[in-house]
Amino acid sequence: MESVTKKRAAAFLIDTAISAAATFGVEYFLRKKVKSEAVHALVTPTVVLWALEYAQLRKNGQTIGYKAMGLALENEDGRPLSDGQIIKRMAYRDTISTFAYLKDRQAFEQQHGQCLPHDSFAHTVVKEI
C-alpha cells in the first residue's frame, strides 16, 4: 500500500471519529423530535459527515484529518474546488467507489494513491504538502 493511501485512510478515520462525536451531539437533540431509529442509524451520521467534510473542503481544501496527515485535496487543473465537485466526490465515495476500486485496483495503484475512483470521477487529486 502506498504511503499516500495509508495517509488517506488515517485521515478518513480521524474525520470519521470527529463526525461520530458530532453525531452524538446532534442526536441528543434529534431524539426528542424524531422517533424513527432508521433516521438515527442511517441518515444522521451520513448528513453530519458530509456536512462537516463539505464545509472544511469548501473553506480550505483540507479536512482536519487531511491537515493532520499532511494532505490536501486539489482540482486536477489547479482551480479552486467547486461545490459540485465536492458533493460528487462524497456521494461517489460512499456509494460506487469501493466497487470501482476492487474491479480495477492496479490502475489506481499506479497513481500512487493520489487519485482513487471518487477522485477521478470528481476530477480531483490528493497531494502531500
Strand order of the largest sheet: 1-2
- Determine the mean pLDDT: 91
Give the total of beta strands: 2
Largest sheet: 2 strands, antiparallel
N to C succession of SSEs: HHHEHHHHE
The Cα radius of gyration reads 16 Å
The stretches of 5 or more residues where confidence is low (pLDDT under 50) are: none
Shape: globular
> Structural class per helix/strand content?
mainly alpha
Q: Helix share of residues?
A: 55-70%
Q: Give the amount of beta strand, in percent.
A: 5-15%
SSE blueprint:
Blueprint lengths: L2 H28 L6 H24 L3 H6 L1 E5 L7 H11 L3 H7 L1 H5 L7 H6 L1 E5 L1
Please explain how this structure is put together.
This protein is mostly helical and 129 residues long. 67% of the residues lie in helices and 8% in strands. The chain contains seven helices and two strands. Strands 1-2 form a two-stranded antiparallel ribbon.
Short précis:
By secondary structure, this protein is mainly α. Helices cover 67% and strands 8% of the residues. It has a two-stranded antiparallel ribbon.
